[in-house]
Amino acid sequence: MASKSSAWKRGEPAASPPAKALSKPVSVPRSPHAGEDGGFDRLIYERVRLGIMSALAMHERLTFNELKSLFAVSDGNLGAHARKLEEAGYVVCNKSFEGRRPKSEYRITQIGKKALLRYLEHIEAVIKATRRV
Questions:
Q1: Each residue of 81-92: pLDDT tens digit?
Q2: Is the pLDDT score of 56 beyond 80?
Q3: How many CA atoms within 13 Å lie on the side-chain side of 130?
Q4: Where do runs of H (alpha helix) occur along the chain?
Q5: What is the CATH number of domain 40-132?
């Protein structure tokens, strides 16, 4: 039998892999709060941004340095992720000075809390659907 690539070059159909008994995909129920995308918020999906949102949901406010110590990322990386969340209205940042040192404090907004809850509901629905298989 010819290899897949040589069969393709000659215009022959490639040999199909042996048939397996595949189960049908299970649909994930939509969250009652989901939008058009079914509740999967790509902005929150990224590891550091999900961490920021989760940490701020548990604490009223956290400083830049506190967040940085939680995720072991560079200043620039954390700043870029925090800025994305701020631009979306999920978090707010209050900048001030403590003595001569700048201090940035972050807190989650109501919009951010709702977005995080929608995201978590979606992930829970995926987990439940996966366990049924």
A1: 999 999 999 999
A2: yes
A3: 6
A4: 4-9, 42-45, 47-58, 64-71, 75-87, 110-132
A5: 1.10.10.10
- pLDDT of 38 > 90? The answer is no
Short-list 55, 28, 62, CA closest to 116: 55
Q: Token match 């987990």: residue?
A: 127
CB count within 10 Å of CB 31 equals 19
Where does 1-133 show beta strands of DSSP type E? Answer: 62-63, 91-98, 101-108
Angle, vertex CA 118, rays to CA 73 and CA 109, nearest 5: 60
User: Domain segments of the chain: what residues?
Assistant: 40-132
Q: Give the span between the Cα atoms of 106 and 93, in whole angstroms.
A: 5
Q: CA-to-CA distance for 41 and 46, rounded, in angstroms?
A: 10
Label residue 114 left, alpha or beta by phi (over 0 means left) and psi (-120 to 50 means alpha).
alpha
